[in-house]
Amino acid sequence: MSIHIVADTKSIAPTVLLPGDPLRARHIAQTYLTDVTQYNEIRGMFGYTGYWQGHRVSVQGTGMGMPSFSIYANELIDSYGAKRLVRVGTCGTMSEKLKLKDILIAQAADCDSAMNTSRFGSYQYAPTASFELLHRAYEHAKAAGIGFAVGNVFTSDQFYDMHGDQKKQIAQSVGTMAIDMETCELYTLAHLKGVEALTLLTVSDSLLTGEQVNPKERQSTFNAMVDIALLTLFS
Ligand SMILES: O=P(O)(O)O[C@H]1O[C@H](CO)[C@@H](O)[C@H]1O
Ligand SMILES: O=c1cc[nH]c(=O)[nH]1
To answer: Alpha-carbon distance 128 to 197, whole Å?
Structure first.
């Protein structure tokens, strides 16, 4: 048991999928897993454990932003023994190479959050994915013939940012492809705690054109990302 996840120690698998939206956690559990049990409902941040093709896996909603994400990732690792964490999220594209509904396999995360400044001071740490998971995700995405790219994500503290245009320009100048709000914390914690981590992000909107995936289409595009995540983890 931990403060924000109230579950038996053994009720969470060592491999955990992490969507921001707890309803996406429920969708993944209902669509992909068998023998599912719901282990958490504290604060509506649903968590489930079940089996995918015989492999035990959990899926835990994390909320939006690094502070919320960090609470769930810390507790999953420290109190429940999570060893492989894969974020299955959404992002806004900032690159012509990454279209609506494509998937970004995030190799590293830029960040404007104060969390790593408070950890590392002026040392500019580079939060990166686990190479092995990244490499497997790349192979599976290529074999699936889906639209995807491997590149950096900018993890921002602010969805509505008065300096958003300026930050977008900086991100684009260094080839960073998309924006989310959690990956920097996932990759940092994974390195600090010696576990494996990867982020896959479906492009839900474009910072270039203002287009958005409509809610009906969202589910099927999320499914392509979850397929890649599960194949990456278990085959
Ligand atoms: O769809 P999720 O996984 O929540 O990810 C993205 O969506 C939220 C913003 O709308 C942020 O959490 C961002 O990272
Ligand atoms: O963090 C996010 C996620 C999706 N789209 C955005 O513009 N930002």
So the answer is: 9
CA 191 to chain centroid: 15
Tell if the pTM clears 0.95, that is, is over it: yes
Pocket test for ligand 2, best of 66, 68, 87, 90 (most atoms within 8 A of CB): 90
Q: Does ligand 1 come within 6 angstroms of the Cβ of 90?
A: yes
| Ligand 2 touching residue 91 (CB < 6 A) | yes
- Extract the residue ranges of the chain whose pLDDT is less than 70: none
| Tens-digit pLDDT profile for residues 110-148 | 999 999 999 999 999 999 999 999 999 999 999 999 999
Report the distance separating Cα 214 and Cα 100, nearest Å.
10
What DSSP letter does each residue of 65-134 carry, written as one string?
SHHHHHHHHHHHHHHH---EEEEEEEEEE-STTS-TT-EEEEEEEEE--SHHHHHHTT-----B--HHHH
User: 181 CB less than 6 Å from ligand 1?
Assistant: yes
Summarize pLDDT for 177-207 with one digit per residue, the tens.
999 999 999 999 999 999 999 999 999 999 9
Distance 181 CA to ligand 1 centre (A): 6
Q: Identify the residue whose C-alpha is closest to ligand 2 atom 2.
A: 180
Cα 56 to ligand 2 centroid, rounded to whole Å: 30
Amino acid at 109: A
